[in-house]
Amino acid sequence: MIKVLDQNTIDKIAAGEVIERPKSVIKELVENSIDSGATAITVEIKDGGMSFIRVTDNGCGIEKAQVPVAFLRHATSKLVTVNDLLSLQSLGFRGEALSSIAAIAQVELMTRVKDELTGIRYEIHGGSEISSSEIGCPIGTTFIARNIFYNTPARKKFMKTPSTEGSYVYDLVCHIALSHPDISFKLVMNGNDKLFTSGNGKLKDVIYSIYGKDICENLLSIDKNGAGIHLTGYIAKPCVSRGNRGFEDYFVNGRYVKTGIVTKAIEDAYRTFVMVHKYPFTVINFQTEPDMIDVNIHPAKMEMKFLNEPEVYDFTYNAIREVLLESELIPQVTPNKNTDFERIMKHRSLPAAPEPFEAKRRQEIINRESQAHIPENKNMVAEDNTYGLSPKHEQLRNVTQQKHEQLRNVPQSENVSQPKIEASKQMDMFKERFLSSEARPKHRLIGQLFKTYWLIEYEDKLFIMDQHAAHEKVKFEELMNNFRNKQIYSQYLMPPEVVTLSARESDFLTRHMELFESLGYQIESFGGNEYKLSAVPANLFGADGRALFLEFIGSLSEENTDITIDIFIARLSTMACKAAIKGNTEITAVEANALIDQLLKLENPYNCPHGRPTIISMTETEIDKKFKRIV
Ligand code: ADP
Ligand code: MG
Predict the structure, then answer these.
(1) Is 161 helix (H, G, I), strand (E, B) or coil?
(2) Which of 312, 289, 322 has its CA nearest to residue 222?
(3) How far is the CA of 92 from the centre of ligand 2 (A)?
(4) Which residue has the higher pLDDT, 399 or 142?
(5) Which residues make beta-bridge pairs with 193?
(6) Under a CB-based contact definition with an 8 Å cutoff, are residues 59 and 37 in contact?
(7) 59 lines ligand 1 (CB under 6 A)
(8) In terms of pLDDT, which residue wins out, 531 or 372?
(9) Structure-model confidence comparison of residues 404 and 367, the more confident one
(10) Mutation to probe ligand 1, out of 28, 98, 255 (largest number of atoms < 8 A from CB)
(11) Whose C-alpha lies nearest to ligand 1, atom 4?
(12) Is there an atom of ligand 1 within 6 Å of 216 CB?
């Protein structure tokens, strides 16, 4: 029942400007939709919300006779006296939003309640009723506000550019979605889908839709009680720290708020974990009794106060610290201790990609190579371009090369001239057909070096194979060949995996399903942004199919341009890299031999898809020279 508040109550509610910008309109409308019991809410804006705002919900709707009342100032169905203010669980309570919006925009409302067969369409411009008619419409409410501030040009001048206003709206809808994982939100800006959450109730899935895989893989869940508060949600590991406070999100009873004491407790708790001027990532909710908080400091601003601030500070600080300290124990396990590593991986809901180790390994190779003064093979780098690597890879390689240059320029303590492996050596290898079926029986596998390289003697040369680079190349060529020849080899996952994609990834997948299928993926929509992954490319088997798929689609969908074959190949090479045996891993001679046999079959076995050599060689003469046997 919608009633008009009594004057006393009106006075006690701090009045204030409700509508400052498009974002405020959307905040009020979406909060009304949430209060109406909606499970799905769509927000659509054009020009940052300046020209067009539409909020559609599947909530309870408004009875026809109540519609004109709803637009009256201080008309609300949620609060009757000022005492209700403190125990209020719903979001809106001032009863002034609809009247304020109608006063400064051209508003159109369509709504229907479930017990009626028809709904009502009601138009009100600048506070004056324009039309009211019965219409057929679904249960729920659609609210359209056009040309906001059209009748108050002075206020319109304070608006920023449409893209800035749009970004405020985006942030707002993200915050609301994060605080309501059980409601499905969709945000459309200028006709483009910007956000979609499934409403499956899982906060982590909402975080995924908004922030993507990287953050999601580094979350720690929090669930603590104290100081009259039940604190739940996720905080990120310190490695996710950001340059601003924009990622410190918290809610009090599902309301996105700012309260100094909580911000301080969060930042203090992270203090020794993150660098100075770095801020943490959190999405946490403080559930508390309404009488523990003062929510009415300013109706238009999202500020509130806990009545027991010192206790709330201590509780929050300790709760976050405990979670961080517990989690800090994990990285001490090295990836080599397989049993421990696997055990830990099982406890993680999303498996981590191996990049950190890979990066470390590559850095070690750079260091080792430079110590041994083996120059980067420029020929091989040039050849790399045939794979059309992305500028990112290009950059990566350049950095690596620079490091090589720098390291090589370090003055030598010894005055011994270093033997150089010339760029042509690898081409020679090809000529001499180290990797040929004729030569193969004459290879003498000496053994593994630094758990990463394999030493092979053949005729008057020592060949050194990088097990990771070699395996990566094998995987890559297999993938490419199958793709080119339209041969599909799938490996079924038992049971299938369910993956949640971001709106962008989901859109990308829908548009490029064929591409994924041609690689061997079998993917079915599960509704919303959830997909069932029932098969992965057979060549990638052994690697974590789900993590690899998420990474693959994640990187592909980040491309701003349309996906070209070059980009695709570059990403494919990353997948091959992820699926390949790592360096710093003990493998058996049988496996090494099998790898050499596989290399034999490749078109270009001598460098990996990133352009690094798979095999280098030193001649007996060079070694003799180094020992000064010959000069
Ligand atoms: P308040 O939300 O503070 O009560 P509003 O001006 O925002 O005041 O809304 C006035 C009333 O209109 C609400 O109390 C509610 O009864 C009704 N109302 C507004 N939007 C909706 C909606 N989307 N679905 C159902 N009822 C609504
Ligand atoms: Mg309201």
Answers:
(1) coil
(2) 322
(3) 4
(4) 142
(5) 188
(6) yes
(7) yes
(8) 531
(9) 367
(10) 98
(11) 76
(12) no
Measured CA to CA, the distance from residue 198 to residue 501 in angstroms comes to 10
Sequence-distant (≥ 6) Cβ neighbours of residue 2 within 8 angstroms: 66, 69, 70, 75, 76, 77
Nearest atom in ligand 1 to the alpha carbon of residue 59 is 24
| Cβ of residue 24 lying under 6 Å from some atom of ligand 1 | no
Query: What are the tokens at 551?
Result: 């990474």
Asked if residue 556 lies in contact with residue 567, where contact means CB atoms within 8 angstroms, the answer is yes
**pLDDT tens-digit readout, 63-100:** 999 999 998 876 676 655 444 444 444 455 567 789 88
Nearest CA to 66 out of 130, 131, 132, 2 is that of 2
| Res. 120 pLDDT band, cuts 50 70 90 | very high
Q: Which candidate, 133, 187, 222, 204, places its Cα nearest to that of 22?
A: 187
Among the bound ligands, the one closest to the CA of 34: 1
Cis peptide before 495 (omega within 30 of 0): yes
**Phi, psi angles (nearest 5°) of residue 357:** -70, -40
At residue 118, the pLDDT reads: 94
- Looking at residue 83, its pLDDT comes to 47
Q: Is the pLDDT of residue 329 over 70?
A: no
pLDDT value at residue 217: 84
What are 231's strand-pairing partners?
A: 224, 286
Asked if 67 and 151 touch (Cβ cutoff 8 Å), the reply is: no
- With a CB cutoff of 8 Å and minimum separation 6, the contacts of 154 are none
Q: Encode pLDDT of 95-116 as tens digits.
A: 778 988 998 899 999 999 999 9
* Ligand 1 pocket residue status of 56, Cβ below 6 Å: no
Burial-class residue 276 by CB neighbours within 10 Å (0-12, 13-18, 19+).
exposed
Nearest by Cα to 76 from 31, 109, 20: 31
Question: What is the average pLDDT score of the chain?
Answer: 76
Phi and psi dihedrals of 134, rounded to 5?
A: -80, 135
Q: In this structure, are residues 105 and 26 in contact, taking their beta carbons and an 8 Å threshold?
A: no
Ligand 1 proximity of 36 Cβ (cutoff 6 Å): yes
* Residue listed under structure tokens 């109730």: 201
Each residue's pLDDT tens digit, 8-26: 444 334 333 568 899 999 9
- C-alpha 156: how far from chain center: 35
CA–centroid distance, residue 57 to ligand 1 (Å): 12
Per-residue pLDDT at 16: 37
For residue 312, the model assigns a pLDDT of 96
For the CA of 96, the nearest atom of ligand 1: 6
DSSP states along 30-46 = HHHHHHTT-SEEEEEEE
Q: What's the mean pLDDT in 584-608?
A: 84
The rounded distance, in Å, linking the Cα atoms of 525 and 522 is 10
From 9, 610, 32, select the one nearest 361 (Cα to Cα): 610
- List % helix, strand, coil for the chain (3-state, nearest 5): 45, 25, 35
Question: What is residue 45's predicted lDDT score, i.e. its pLDDT?
Answer: 97
- Among the bound ligands, the one closest to the CA of 2: 1
Are the C-beta atoms of residues 235 and 320 closer than 8 Å to each other? yes
Ligand 1 mean position, distance from CA 59 (Å): 11
Residues 603 and 585: their CA atoms lie apart, in Å, by 26
Is residue 309 classed as helix, strand or coil in its secondary structure? helix
Q: What are the strands, taking DSSP E only, across 450-539? A: 453-458, 461-466, 490-500, 522-525, 530-537
Q: What is the pLDDT of residues 238-288, one digit of tens each?
A: 777 676 677 889 998 888 888 889 999 999 898 877 666 677 899 999 999
